[in-house]
Amino acid sequence: MKNSKKEKNEEEEKKKRKKKKKKKKKKKKKKKKKKKKKKKKKKKQRSFCPLPLLIPLKNINNNSNNNNNNKNNNNNNKNKNNNNNNNINNNNSNNKTYACM
């Protein structure tokens, strides 16, 4: 008798376990809400120099050279011819130097 009772109890426990397992399967999984990622604002790179300064420096340099040449021309007639030649050579050169590289 005892054995049969134990067996019955075991069977009942097994049935309960199976039922519990089935119940677990029936539970719906809750959908995880996706967190919205905040978009990072890109920091604008501050340009080192504004666009108007992208003028070739060649002209500026030539102006300073011209001023110096004018002073020299007033002082010496010999230097006058040489400086004029230098100015022509400077103006013909195609090498442009920009304010911002």
TrEMBL record:
Residues 1-101 are annotated as: Disordered. Residues 1-14 have a biased composition (Basic and acidic residues). Residues 15-46 have a biased composition (Basic residues). Residues 58-101 have a biased composition (Low complexity). This is Uncharacterized protein.
